[in-house]
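TASK: fixed-backbone design
INPUT:
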């Protein structure tokens, strides 16, 4: 009878060890699965953030290009106005110089 009890205790111990080993194996499998899913989730999030950053960079680049083009046009327009003004003043000065020369020539005769 005592031998039978010890035998049952031994069998229960072996059963408990087997259950523990199965639980450890399942826990390890779950850990690996969770790690893979976590890695996939991280990669997905990373890709999403990267796409957003690239889109924002492209928008900033387009905005900067438009701003530069607008500023270039403004400067060209301003430069043309200044050139026209200088040319008009030069024509006025040329006419004054021509009048002065003519007055000198006519006055000398």
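OUTPUT:
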């Amino acid at each position: 009878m005592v031998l039978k009890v010890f035998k049952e205790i031994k069998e229960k111990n072996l059963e408990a060890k087997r259950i523990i080993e199965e639980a450890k194996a399942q826990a390890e499998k779950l850990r690996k699965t969770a790690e893979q899913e976590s890695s996939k989730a991280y990669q997905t999030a990373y890709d999403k953030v990267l796409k957003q950053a690239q889109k924002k960079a492209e928008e900033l680049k387009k905005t900067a290009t438009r701003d530069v083009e607008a500023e270039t046009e403004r400067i060209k327009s301003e430069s043309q106005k200044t050139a026209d003004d200088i040319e008009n003043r030069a024509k006025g000065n040329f006419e004054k110089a021509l009048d002065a020369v003519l007055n000198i020539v006519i006055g000398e005769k």
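COMMENT: The radius of gyration is 46 Å.
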